[in-house]
Amino acid sequence: MVRNPEFNDGLKGWSVFGFGQIAERTSDTGNRFLATDRRSLSHQSMSQKVYLQRGMLYTFSAWLQVDQGNTTVTAIFETAKDGLVPVGAVEARSGCWSMLKGGLTAKSSGPAEFFFEVSSTSLFSSLHTV
């Protein structure tokens, strides 16, 4: 469902939800990841537009990190019919990759936007979103 989950094609398929800026980066060990900065609100992060089919089960996992302190990161699908649907959360820590797993069974068919809400506005990174 998620396009370009390992960021092998740069930012292809990814966009900014709200304001802010996303950038592809590479770790010292060669792993690609996306970073979101210049954020002023919790929902400003990387996102993808997807299409959900009613009754289908969708699951995902993502490795996440913040640059300062500890903060809750929540994965959310937004649809016109169902509004904001939280589908998983994790306590992310500075300097440590944390895994977020989640899923949902779609209540309706239609376009949706998948994004992350981060309770602080620190630099937020995502590695290998599947």
UniProtKB/TrEMBL annotation:
<feature type="domain" description="CBM-cenC">
    <location>
        <begin position="2"/>
        <end position="76"/>
    </location>
</feature>
<dbReference type="GO" id="GO:0004553">
    <property type="term" value="F:hydrolase activity, hydrolyzing O-glycosyl compounds"/>
</dbReference>
<dbReference type="InterPro" id="IPR008979">
    <property type="entry name" value="Galactose-bd-like_sf"/>
</dbReference>
<protein>
    <recommendedName>
        <fullName>CBM-cenC domain-containing protein</fullName>
    </recommendedName>
</protein>
<dbReference type="GO" id="GO:0005975">
    <property type="term" value="P:carbohydrate metabolic process"/>
</dbReference>
<keyword id="KW-0378">Hydrolase</keyword>
<dbReference type="InterPro" id="IPR003305">
    <property type="entry name" value="CenC_carb-bd"/>
</dbReference>
<dbReference type="InterPro" id="IPR044846">
    <property type="entry name" value="GH10"/>
</dbReference>
<dbReference type="Pfam" id="PF02018">
    <property type="entry name" value="CBM_4_9"/>
</dbReference>
